[in-house]
Design a protein that fits this description.
By secondary structure, this protein is an alpha+beta fold. About 35% of the residues lie in helices and about 20% in strands. It contains 10 helices and 22 strands. The chain has a 4-stranded antiparallel sheet with strand order 2-9-6-7. A hairpin with a 7-residue loop joins β6 and β7. α3 crosses α5 and α5 runs antiparallel to α10. The termini are close together.
Length: about 400
């Protein structure tokens, strides 16, 4: 980062403070849209960085009581509870509203900062605070008073505009790549419906069978190791829930490692044809979500105890076909109906094995597999561009903000 003039943040803001006391804005204070005077800006706006989230409202009396905590277009809001330090520039044309107690507002003085530049600078500064707090074992808390005393660089507006523009171009490339990947995923699902119809209505009259009829071995739960047993030089890698939900292929990158016996490896090692299900989730929507182990998976990768494995019979079904079917409402509704909720939502092997599936001829499934592989080639090309753009953005962030 260049040798810029440093100034206390307080010198360059008109307003900076955290929202009202929680007792001033309880759940009973919110009103339906029909009775609304203004919206409430909340932590989810900062975290998701969009106005397109479910919005809550207050009436005119509550607004008048809390109008000191007003939000206008151009303000920067910061999440201050739970997920801390996420920032969002409120769009200039956004409706006025008031702050929720869980956010901080920063309103910059005119002419000092390019808002996009400052938002990136602020995000970087807050991430450093979070890293330092986590490293010290102290829970991070954002204090507007302390933040206001910190020295922030103040480049010329011309330099700020250039930095913001450069990063905006790279961010646009990243967003575009992610949008293309999302559309390719939707294309795979759309092609499933084109070829096989909706499994719920089964208008094409495919055979309906229990999922147990397409597995080659018994279902099983995975490998258990204590947290303290994980180590960088372990002889096996371990797939957990985070590696299998919301994806077609299980994510094999940067897996934790531990040591396992030859017997454990023989019992829990994964291969192409294994379908892995999440068997415990904090939210019901996550239960029973499944991915498949990719082709050409290296040896010595095990699945852990919060995962259920169904080894598929490759003479009867294609794993990619099965994975996409597992995302349909037909399959998901069956899984959720078999789950149990206490502190967490769980499902056992018996619950998964009670589900039914449609089973078109294997030749038809292989035709779908060929389509997926063509799509994967397109995704691979996009991911290469995405990886380069993300690497460039990290380098620029380091150069500009240290």
């Amino acid at each position: 980062m260049a040798n810029y003039r440093m100034m206390p943040l307080n010198d360059n803001v008109e307003e900076m403070f955290i929202g009202p006391f929680g007792s001033s804005l309880k759940n009973e204070c919110f009103v339906p849209y029909e009775k609304a005077y203004c919206m409430v800006y909340e932590q989810k706006h900062a975290i998701q960085k969009t106005m397109n989230v479910e919005t809550r409202y207050v009436d005119e009396n509550k607004y008048n009581e809390l109008k000191r905590f007003g939000i206008h277009g151009g303000d920067i809001i910061v999440s201050c509870r739970g997920t801390i330090g996420e920032t969002f520039i409120v769009p200039d044309d956004a409706p006025f509203g008031i702050m929720h107690p869980s956010i901080m507002k920063i309103r910059l003085k005119s002419g000092v900062y390019n808002k996009e530049y400052f938002n990136l600078l602020l995000s970087t500064r807050l991430k450093k605070h979070e890293a330092e707090a986590n490293g010290s074992g102290v829970k991070m808390a954002i204090s507007a008073t302390a933040l206001g005393k910190e020295l922030f660089p103040v480049p010329t507006i011309e330099e700020q505009n250039k930095i913001a523009s450069n990063l905006d171009k790279v961010t646009h490339t990243i967003d575009l790549c992610n949008a293309i990947l999302e559309k390719l995923d939707l294309l795979v699902k759309s092609r499933f419906v084109e070829m096989f119809g909706d499994p719920q209505t089964n208008e094409l009259g495919w055979n309906v069978v229990n999922i147990s009829e397409v597995i080659s071995e018994k279902a099983s739960n995975g490998f258990f190791a204590k947290r303290d047993d994980y180590c960088d030089d372990g002889n096996v890698s371990v797939l957990g829930v985070v590696n299998i939900v919301n994806r077609m292929y299980s994510n094999l990158e940067a897996l934790p490692r531990t040591n396992a016996t030859n017997k454990d490896i023989e019992k829990y090692e994964v291969k192409y044809g294994d379908m892995l299900f999440c068997r415990s989730s904090l939210v019901a929507e996550g239960i029973g979500k499944a991915s498949i182990v990719p082709e050409n998976t290296p040896t010595h990768i095990l699945f852990e105890c919060h995962v259920i494995r169904l080894p598929l019979d490759l003479t009867k079904c294609v794993p990619e076909f099965m994975q996409v079917q597992s995302t349909t409402d037909y399959f998901r509704n069956q899984v959720i109906a078999q789950s149990k909720t206490a502190t967490m939502t769980t499902i056992g092997q018996d619950g998964i094995l009670k589900t039914n599936i449609i089973l078109p001829p294997i030749e038809k499934q292989k035709e779908y597999y060929d389509f997926i592989k063509q799509t994967d080639k397109s995704k691979s090309a996009v991911k290469q561009v995405l990886e380069k753009a993300e690497t460039l953005k990290k380098a620029l962030m380091q150069e500009y903000f240290g």
